[in-house]
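Bumping with the actual sequence this time:
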Amino acid sequence: MFYERVLKGDKRALAKLIRVVDDRVDGYEEEVSKLLDYCGKAHFIGITGAPGAGKSTLTNEIIKHFRKEDKTVAVVAIDPSSPFSHGAILGDRIRMSEHASDDGVFIRSVATRGHLGGLSSSAVEIAMIFDAAGFDIVIIETVGVGQDEVDIAYVADTCLVVSVPGLGDDIQAIKAGVLEIGDIFVVNKADKDEAVRTIRDLEMMIELSPKRSWKPPIVKTVATKGEGVEELANFIKEHKKLSNSKHYERLYYIAKQYLKEKIEKKLLTKDKFIDYLKKLKDPYRIINEYILNYK
C-alpha cells in the first residue's frame, strides 16, 4: 500500500501513487480514500489564464517566494496531451526544473487526456494527495484556457487569473466566466506598452461585475525578472486569511468526476446501443434501465 509510505514522507511512494491515480490503476480509489482523513491543511492556489500568459514562469517565482519562507510547495501542472503517447508534454515541468533537487518542492505534470475545464480527471485527487503528504502550499496550474473553462474555481482556495498585454482584444480575452472566478488578477509581462490598457480594462470590468466581500486586486508582474511576485504573494496570504477552505468542494468535485467515469465505463458500445434503440426507440429508457439500473 502506497498511502502508508506517503504519510511517512516517502517521495518515491508519492510519485508511484500519483502515477497509479493518474493511470486509473485498479484499486486507486482505496489508496486515495485512506489519505482523505489527513487532508484539509494545505492552501490550494489555482493559476489559470490564456496560453502564453507566462503561468509556468509565474508559478516558478511563486515557488521561490514560499520556499524562502520555508513553506513546502507541491505543484500539479496540467499540460496538453501528447497526440502520440497521450501523456503530458511536460513543458510546465521543464520551466520549473530548477527546483528538481529541492526536497521541499514536488512538481508533477499531468495530461488533460481530453478532459475539459482546464484540469485533468486526476488533478484534484493528486492535489489532495499532496495535501495529505503534508505540503503547505498546493498549486494547481491549469492548461491554457478560454472564457468558460473555470473548473479551477471550484477547487482552489485562492484563484489567480493571469492575463498578458498584446493578445489583441484584451476585454475579449478576460471576460465572461474567467473574469468571475478571479480572486487576484495578474497582468504578467507588465513591462509591455500595452499593459496600461489591459489594467484599465480589468479595472473597468471588475467595477461592472457583481460586488463581493473581497474585491479582487490587480497585480503587475514581470515573472521572467521576478518583479511584482512579492506583492502578489502578500495578496495571496491576505486572501487566505479572509477566505474559507474549499476542502469539501474538492471532495464533491472528485465525486462528480468519479461518477462520470463510472457511467462512461458502463456505457454500451455504439453498435450495441443502436441495437437497443431499434428495439426500444428511447435513449432515456436505455440509459435509465440498462445502464443506471433504474426502473
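The C-alpha cells above came from a reply further down the thread. The two ends are 39 Å apart (CA to CA).
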